[in-house]
Batch of 4 targets.
Target 1
Amino acid sequence: MTKGHNASQWAQRLLRDGYCIIPGLLPVSDIAELESELDGQFEQTPFCDGDFYGYRTKRLGRLLRRSQIAEKLVLEPVILALAKEILGSACDQIQLNVAQAIEIHPGEIEQFPHCDQDMWAGVKGQHEYLLNVMWPITPFTDRNGATRIYPGTHKLEIQSIEELGSPVIAESDPGSAICFLGSTVHGAGANRSQAVRRAVVIGYSLGWLKPYENLWLAYPPEIAKTFAPELAALTGYVQHRPNLGNYEGQCPSVVLRDDVPCSPGATDALRPDQAAAVREFARSQRAAG
């Protein structure tokens, strides 16, 4: 784990306030390399189309295919530990929800305040669905559109934006990690400066949810084969027990092998408590027969 950072302490802040800002989590040189990798791709990308995404904003998905340094952000040890601590009580595996680069241009208006967990229709309030991490590429300031976060809204039922109080302006430098829950109201600020505001957002969600990015299209097997096993699992090549997301009854990581079997044969993938119950039931059935 990154020296000087304790994931449990940051988790406490997240659960208390709905957000936290971890300073100096990655070297500035890593962020500079990331920006260099994305420069030309931002230039080739058209502006978004829509009042939510913004007409003066550019977004690049499939970040792990666009940048070699992006893997460092996705697998950063403190962040992964934090995501597992926040989400692990409600799922067997966490997954990558999004890996996206964002460029907000001068003249962009403030984004509609929202909760990212609203993309899922499940009952809210019983557990967290999502942890987002915003990594500034350029310094975040009030003037250039730093993310606005509404503390404490993860504990409230907000029916209208008129109910929101004053936001925290997440001013921070490259290398810092702005973390917020999927239940926390937030939104990008208006860019009133003369320069673009760049960032990367990495999101982690419960492994049994449909993710924001279609992971198997973003990272098909020929791409995922090049990933480390932990990264491949985060991008969808793992079963979520019991038996969810399987391929021919097997863990989908089987398709990353050089010798993919035509008919691999279904194999149980159960949680320990389920395996014990099923095993005992099967034993009693065999004994009775």
Note: The beta strands are 19-22, 57-60, 94-104, 130-136, 148-149, 168-169, 177-181, 186-187, 197-206.
Target 2
Amino acid sequence: MISTQRDTFDPHVQDRLLIVGTQWAPSGLVDQVRSRLSDWSVSVSDTYLKGIADVARQRVQTMLVYIDPSQTRLSRAIAGLREAAGDEAKVVLCCRVPEEPAARQAMAGGADDYLIFPFFGHELEQALGIESDGSEVMDHLTSTAAPLRKLADLLATMSDTPKAMLHCAADVIKEALGATGAMIVVDGATATAGETVTKPVLSVPLGQGVDEAGPNGQIAVNARPEGAYTPGDMDALTHYARIIRHVIAAASRQRHWQRLAVTDQCSGLANRRYLYERLDAILLEAQAERFPVTVLLFDVDDFKSYNDKFGHHAGDAIIRAIGDLFREHSREQDIVTRYGGDEFAVVFWDAEGAREPGSSQLHHAHAVLDRFVESLRNVDIPEVTEKGGGKITISGGLATYPWDGSTRDELLKKADDALLKAKRAGKNRVFVIGQSEDDTTV
């Protein structure tokens, strides 16, 4: 049960609230206040100057003032509202998260408190000095304990796939509202928890009232098994939508930076860090499932001469062309990386698991190399060919788990040894560990 502190107000102005600064306020602010304070008389003033006049005219002693940080002399405007209303008035500022520093500074004008929009729980009532008998607070804490645990689970899914995150978010909403089913749609992807949502009872845009860039979407819920939703439930749904939007955006940024951390900028291939992580994981799987893994190291013959003759932009064009060609001729599961400089590393493996004795995986590596080298003979790189450059060739070395090594370092070392043999044998060839230097494979 909510009751107002009537003894601090003029009996002619009690239960009146003036919202000042609605010209700059986000959509939904006035509606949310009126929904929560349904037994109050709520009026609005679009600017601070008009608010000062309306306070005196309407004899209002409770104000909610929206902060616009682009306005100069905010503190003086708040002081003017305070003076017009009197010392006994309640002046509460309101802002969104990015504007919180401006709200704290504007408190110097004589405000009693400030709130972040959208409001959650009983924040609005508490800031305005509206007392509660405690039962609603206890009910709120009891009803939100499980959803708060679910929010922690949602944060834990930030490193998972976007699909897993959305399903967890839908589960958060379902439990928070006590709905039979919840649905979340983000940028065309849909996830549902509980019953399928065909006729939503409540629905809000993802992150309503938030202007910052982020994912677009919708959250909707089915009816409850018992009882109707209240205005407070709509407030809670809006608040959860805002939190989920921020979490999804943060996870997207995290995945973006993770991709950048393992991607070579010039070639667009995975880099050495990614090679090490994936090769270690593949070798563990190969040990358990008993299948071979082949590593190829190769580089561009006389690469330095291209940079010296035609400039580094020509060298970059060669790196990009080789990366594109090798990806084109490899299988989806093969790992193609830029190892460093003009050197590339490729991991050939079989995602389906164990193979029969006499595996032809090494033959597959040779087949890929044959197709790649043939394409390389015919590729046109304008930065080189238009300046009279010759055909590009490569030299490489192959090593295979478990025969040539059992660890990442051992395989890369053996492949590098074979690469050096290919160079000594005259370049434009690929060697396999144990192969004679007189025997070329490409």
Note: The longest strand covers residues 293-300.
Target 3
Amino acid sequence: MRVVVVGNGPAASSAVEAFRKVDKESEIIVLSEEKYPTYAPNCLENVIRGDISKEALFYKGGMEFYERHKVDFRPGKEVVRVETKRKVVITKDGEEIRYDRCLLAAGASSFVPPIPGRELEGITTAKTLDDALKIRERVTSGKVRRAVVVGGGPIGVEDAEALRRLGVEVSVVEIMDRVLPRMLDGEMGRVYGDAFSKETGVKILTEHEVVTFHGNGHVEAVEVRRKGTDRSEFLKADMVILSTGVRPRTHLVEGTDIKVHRDEKTGRPVGGILVDEFQRTSNPDVFAAGDIASGIDVWGNHRWIALFPAAQQSGYVAGFNMAGKRVKSNGLVDYNAVKTSSVTAGSGGVFEGAEEEIKVEKGNYLVKVFLKEGTVIGYQFVGIPKGRKLNPKNKILRSFGLEGWERKVLADRGFGLEASGVLFHFFLKLRRTLKGVTRRAVEDLVLRSLANPSLDVPLYL
């Protein structure tokens, strides 16, 4: 059997691992538009700062990953179309590659809004490793003193902090009334935004839209306007990073029998390629996973979730099923944390439509848990821990060596990823209810104990 994988991100690499656990001999071809082996797409702000090792960036082991799993890896091969009737994928240079089973894991591409002047030099996205490397090269060359980030989502604020740490004056322009609008509700988003701006010195303009980019060949200023007014403000800029969202690469299946996620009433696309709980598309020999797909969430609904954990999860499910297993996904969930060292934030699940919310304020933390019909459907947290020491009795810290972790954790002044991971695992993956003891654990910030009762020792004293 020949398996062709279109894409080379977290979903693709996870699918390869799962497939090889079952099938050791079938041919696997991985086609990648980029020239690099699988890398961590959620660490590109680290690339901009220059504080990530090759081992961490190429987290699957670089080229050795393909050798170990007997994969025919073909970098620089962009796929432009899939033809399901002939069972071939067609590359940009015209090559046709036959498949018996195909995994579409080509991810999503950056959305570039049709703003006048967007073609000027110095305006870029920050979606790929090449993007991040070019941004770092330009900043470290001393050519960038002022930058504007368009879009206040997770990538936008992470990139803004990265640039600030490199000495760049940064402004973030967000059209909504808060940063992280899809991660946090109004109250939490404003708390995070105020703290982030104060801690980093990043200027945040919410409820503003970009009107035009100005410059003579190279961007020099960004014209912005507060929503509902006709008065413009001009932000000087040597660089602009567009962080205005992504779109799934569903053009690969145009004209085929593979269905795309559409609004039932309007027919408008609202997500990626439709897959079932086995990551199968409407064509029996084609699977899809990661940012290109709309999968089944924990509540049984189709949702497009363009996040790293969902990509890994869906990739593993697809890999097992392509190899002949019958593995059902236990449901995808939004699960995200902002990796900013100045102030932490995280969320999981949904908060729209919640019938009840429980808010816990303690010290420098604000935690919300959202419920519907008595069941937890989501959570959010924001926090800036100060003046707290790590607990040497915590088994997790001891197992990794306290000294190194103390320096690292305290330097980050937070536990964003850990807290988000624990809350996600406990409430949404394990479907646990919010009982009295659970609420006390949240109130005391003993979140690690929710994930594993045997480790019921606080992370912080």
Note: The domain at 2-109+247-322 is CATH 3.50.50.60 (FAD/NAD(P)-binding domain).
Target 4
Amino acid sequence: MRCVLHIGTEKTGSTSLQHWLYDNREELEEKGICLSKSLGVPHNRLLALYFQSRVDDWCKEHGLEDFDKRRTALAPALQSLRNEVQHARERCHTFLVTSEHLHSRLTERNQVEELFQFLDSLFDSIEVVCYVRNQADLVLSAYSTALRMNLTRTLADFASSVGTEAIYFNHLLSAELWSSVFGRSNVSFRVYEHCLDLPDRVVTDFAENVLDIKNMPGGEKNLNTGLSPFHAAAFRQINIRFPRWPADGWAGKMNRRLKRVISDLPVTTRRRLVVPEPQEILRRFEEKNALFFQEYGDGTNHFSPERWVDRQPEGLFGFEEDPDLDEIIRVLLEQTLSEPPRPRGLLFWRTRK
């Protein structure tokens, strides 16, 4: 049986793709393509969690920061996967695993090698599929995600700190790692920007070019949307005043509750965050990107500074250009904190629906 291993990357439509896959699970199985229930639905995150050494937000929230304790807890999921694969052989030719955390969490060779050894014991062949995105847009999306957790830095500071040796942003390093373990011919890299004009973006590209199936029902677009300047500024202030960790502490609970309040506010502006000096970021990675596309692409550097396209509507700009937002956010936080709690717990009345 063939295994298709979709490893992301993050910020390349993985959420939309995963929801589409599991929404159409029965139709895919009729075509000989199986998905896992054991690894987490719709994102198969448990596979990455078992092999990663990094302690991320999931580990903290589930009390599994200790590596051995985490492996013990996740071992049954891997055994269930073995059983799934064995049963799937009777009716399917392809088993699909999808998790962008495989790319972002497994950054050391020994981790990827251990993953390969495990999958190699289950499947006859393994095809790794990875979507890549230009670093300027990737920085912006990564910043939005980090704000949802506990980041307190400004966008400009975050963007300036991104170095070319960070494997999360350096596609050449990532390609060399996965290709050296799984084999160059078994790893393919697809450009996310090339999917943006397709009817369902990455969903369409993956269905037609990876799974070789046509005329499948479309999927929902933009399930993992970015933050507005207002929400980004608010989240940063919340993280400064109420650190997210430990999650069960008073500040951690306030962090999550305040973000829910801010997220529900009827913000009328259509502005979106804009990364400062995107061409400068791409110039920073220009040599690495050129080598990446020479070795793993068609030879054209699709992420050169000259090729970057601003896909934001005209007139949109970053929150740091608006001098009134900090004061607005300060007032909102004070109003929220001053609301009397309901009799049960600390849930504020305005957080309830």
Note: The two ends are 47 Å apart (CA to CA).
